[in-house]
Amino acid sequence: MPEGDPGILCFQHCDIQHKVFCLELPDFCPKCDIPLTSVQLKIPPFQVPFPFTCARKAPNSVIIRPTDGDFLHFYQNAADLHIGITDSKGDVYEFDKFGLHIRAKNWTWSQCLSIPIVSESSSMWREYWDYTLIIVSQMSNWQAEKYKEDSNNCYSFVLTFLRMLQVKELKPSLTSKTQFCKDFIVPRTKNAAKYIALYRQVIKDGVTVISCA
Ligand SMILES: [Zn+2]
């Protein structure tokens, strides 16, 4: 199980209009009160895929996490996200008000969303990615005193890097932070938000029945 994965289970018993979510299988079906036996299950229990990963398992990626705390417990909306980049070893490069950091191992990135940017994954590509990352990191823009919350922030670092990669297909998405978020961030956070809402409901209610009609 990936780090932080609560292991939410899903099954359908007697009623295909409803899905049951839980952390531990109940003894009785919450819809019909009949003892659960796998024979009667319309869909046998499976684990709902955990959308988050650890930075170390997402090399050569753009990664995001809430500015404070983790996704499952602290995420509110996409407005308050921090963004960084991993190299081929999964080390995180990130820019904040304290300047640019390169973190080899850091618990703050143990539950993040990785954003697939390009499908290319050859060793030459990974070398090129790492090389470009080093070049961008050496720019003077990332000193702590140059940080500006609105105009020179974590997104500025990531967009500068992605522009420097010179990937033709990416170009239309790199015109602004807004465009980049629309094309790459929002689709991923939408999916994650569904999982987070489900997690919070299962924690609150225990066995949760959700209509799929
Ligand atoms: Zn039932």
UniProtKB/TrEMBL annotation:
Domain MKRN2 opposite strand protein-like C-terminal intervals: 45-202
Pfam families recorded: DUF4796_C, DUF4796_N
Domain MKRN2 opposite strand protein-like N-terminal: 6-36
Protein name per the record: MKRN2 opposite strand protein-like protein
Organism: Dinothrombium tinctorium
